[in-house]
Amino acid sequence: MKTLFIYILAAAAIIFISPGQLEAQSKGKGNHKIDQYEKANLIDALQMDEKTSTKFFTKRREFKEKQRAAIEQIERLIEELRGVLNSNSQDKDINKIKKYNDELLRLEIQMHKLRTDYRFSLGEILTPEQIGKYIIFEKDFRKDIRDAVINQKRGHSGKE
Asked: pLDDT, tens digit, for every residue of 97-133?
């Protein structure tokens, strides 16, 4: 019954979030309400006590900050690469392009290692069952948010 109530509350939260908030979330801005909703549902889904949830969310926040910094660096490099590739120069500097490609690959490997290290570190805080539930929750939550953003955009595209 409690789980059903949480799902109903979650659906209501997604329905009542304005299109602007959803769009901002998709761009990584203004996501405080969604973060709070996600946090509450994680505590319930993983059945964490206060001590465990404090440790978990501290570690998660640290991971998210590192991840955000890496994503920003990747996005910056992609924009620089786009500029090089879109230049009108007939002699594009292949070595420069190769350096961008190599650096982007290095950063993608670094992001994968960051995520892997984070998952392993959760074993210090959560039980194997909680980690499994967290992995599933994370995937399902991202899908629900993505679907809500897509549905919101579809619903408002004909009104503009």
From this structure: 999 999 999 999 999 999 999 999 999 999 999 999 9
Query: Rounded CA gap, 106 and 109, in Å?
Result: 5
How is the chain classified by DSSP, letter by letter? -HHHHHHHHHHHHHHHS-HHHHHHHHTT-S-HHHHHHHHHHHHHHHT--HHHHHHHHHHHHHHHHHHHHHHHHHHHHHHHHHHHHH---SS--HHHHHHHHHHHHHHHHHHHHHHHHHHHHGGGTS-HHHHHHHHHHHHHHHHHHHHHHHHHHHHHHTT-
Per-residue pLDDT tens digits for 42-82: 999 999 999 999 999 999 999 999 999 999 999 999 999 99
Which one, of 46, 47, 15, lies nearest residue 144 by Cα?
15
Give 56: exposed, middle or buried? Use CB within 10 Å, 0-12, 13-18, 19+: buried
- Smallest CA-to-CA distance from 144 within 5, 6, 10 is with 10
